[in-house]
Amino acid sequence: MQNRFLDDPRGAVHTADALVADVMQRLAATFADHKQELEGQWSRGEQVNTEDLRLALRHYRSFFNRLLVT
Description:
- The chain is mostly helical.
- It has one domain (about 1-70).
- It has helices spanning about 1-5, 10-45, 50-70.
- The protein is elongated.
- The two termini are about 20 Å apart.
């Protein structure tokens, strides 16, 4: 994208925007899938083991921290 900027600045920015939007959608979908899986287990009365919950919380914290850094 950076190489393309000199020849087509508007196109390079548009491509970068589309890439970021796609990555954000994929990340949101991944977190939504994990949330739905946990909530499905809870609604069926299943126990979710503490280790799975700990890992889910670590993923949320890691993702949130990366968002704050940028």
